[in-house]
Amino acid sequence: MECSGRPAPHLITGLRRLVDDLQRPDVSAGTGLTDVVCGNTDLLSFQDDGVHYAGVPVSQLVRRHSFEAVVWMLLNHSLPTEEELADCSSIMSECECVDQAATSVVAGLPLGHRPLDLFPLALTILSFFDPAPQDTGEESARCRFWRLLAQVPVLIAADAGFEAARSEHVEIENTSTGEAAVRGADLSFAGKLLSRLRPGRLPSAEEEAAMNQLMICQCLTEMRPACFAARFSASTTVHISAALQSAANVFTAQLKNDPFCWTAELLQGFRDPGQAEAWWVRREGQPMPFGFAAAGSDDRAELILETCQTVLGCIDRIRLAAVAARLEKLQLREHRIPTLDWASAKLMTLLEIPADRQAIVIALSRFSGWAAQAFEQRTSGVSLLPALRYGAD
Hints:
mainly alpha; Citrate Synthase, domain 1; 3-stranded antiparallel sheet
């Protein structure tokens, strides 16, 4: 009997099925929601000419518009008119007055806590002072968001660790020329936030513009856990506050080991670029734990790095920028490029925002993006409540 050197057809078929079975994911074990498409969004897109918000290039937004105008666009899918923006700014200014009882709670917190932990706490406290807590209509929800955006920085600044008594108003009241008073009154939301994070100091025009661009670039991300938390809550409840609190809690929990604080302290700890390079060499090939990626299609990092050049002006900032540039050059040799988060940490450190307060800037920037995604999810009517496979009795 002759034996062919070629396997029988049924054996080949069986082997192919075996290989397919081995490569097929184990559905019975459950794959969670990884890679599951839960909907569509028009808020964020990655185009050949850069990142777009609601169809508008971010490179255009950071050069022509304020953070408040971009937030309005995300909520309404169109840029505001001058009248709409003026009305919005007026409403936010009126809402900056926070009930004394709320500020007393924050001022009485024990010392030693992280400033970032005040963020979700502030949302919870402010919910008790909401003038229309039972009104869940869309227009009321939008007004509630604007109130929170205006009030959260004020409430956080009431913390004893922020030296609230030495706010920008001290500088305004002590000036004899009145120029600081005019400057303080005209500050944008980004400028006011920078003042509260650096008590007693009003930002220069360049610093305010840099802070504004930073917040615009950070206000939207791809689907991260905090974004999903906002969308999930918005799909299961009609209250916008629940969506925002969910996102804030997830964001804060993920930053228990605060990478922005780590980066700022790292950059501040080097005397010169040579010391930074020596530190990198001692790592013996270990990658940077934060701030660099093997590839990227996000032009916002480049926009922020360009902005860093506008706020130098003193020897300490020039030294810090040189240290950061050396680390970026060393990373480039490893074919790793700066991410948006690295560029943001670099800019915030140049702006002299304390290391442990930088994550608050990121949280307040993304706060508007969470709100926009929550509104979009609620409008879509798509439920994100997944099914759970229960064990047999």
